[in-house]
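ok so i was messing around last nite and threw this chain in just to see what happens. nothing serious, just curious
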Amino acid sequence: MNNIVKIFCGTLRRLKIAIILALICGIAGVALYFPGRGTADVFMADEKIDIAVIDNDKSELSERIKNYFGNKVNMNIVDEAKAEKYNDMLINTDISAIIEIPEGFQQSVLDGNIKKIISTTLDDYENAAYVSVYIDGFMRSAETASIAAKGDKDTLLKILSTEDGAELTTESAVVSSREALYVQAGYYFSSGFLTMLVYGVGIFVTLAVMDDKSYGTYNRMRASSVTGMQYIIGTSMASSISSLLVMLPVLLFLIISGAEITFSIPYVLIANVLFALISTALAIFIALLVNEKSTIFMLSGCIAGLGSILGGAFFPIMESAGPLKYLSMLMPQFWFTDLVGGSTANPLINITILALYTALLFLASAVVFSKRAK
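result:
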């Protein structure tokens, strides 16, 4: 533990410029959030989007839901095809989303144990965000109505009736949903740039590790019985501070400012921390693997720029991209932006994959260090 603390303090002193630069990048991320909000206007245009609704409940409440989407949320419900053909229509972009109302949905609302309405979209942030925001808005209203109805179906339907101008369809509910859409669009936009900037800050970490190689630090650490794992842990702990200063400010800003956040804060927070650790581990790994500083700048630039583009950090990679889509899934940026953009159906999958990237890179760095020291 003493060895780790010494390496941590030493690395932290050498990264003073990186920490200042990281703080500037973090503030820039907050600044980028505001112009990023404007990207939400792309998918809040007056033109209706086509959706398919699979009604497994066949209840009065499910009819209210379809009326809500069709008449109040500017969506066009496609019902001329059979349910089994909807997937093909979605893949061919004939429709933008498939919304499935689960069996027993009305009863679940009456019982206070509300089943989720499932939405399926292509890997398209705009449609996914647009649909999910309004589904979330309906679910919040359903939860409130469930409490007020106390199990009475007529009361529930009256509260959620679109004809009666109930809470679900008030202007305040629509404005609230649109504000949430602006928030998520702005955060997605700024996060995309931050995935590139954090790699830029990582160059300072790479240079610090390269200096350890050049100045014989390996030999001195070997003489003092410092293991490869201790070196990696101490260096990465100090380096992660600069990475976190890049990734976290915009998220903290949204939380402190009381922005209307629809995504899961714990999942997104974990994803931010993991991506910061990935950039740190990658910076150390490159430094241990490469001997020329000119090569490091070129390699780091390619990873930061091309990795972010291929990973969908700046714009989503559509399913129609073919092999490029599968290539994008090899990038950690893909799993990060897929989570913060609200496109993923299961955030735990994204978190798990990011954690595996982190563990693999740190393990590889420790192995390379140990071989170099020998």
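not much to say yet. The first strand starts at residue 49 and ends at 55.
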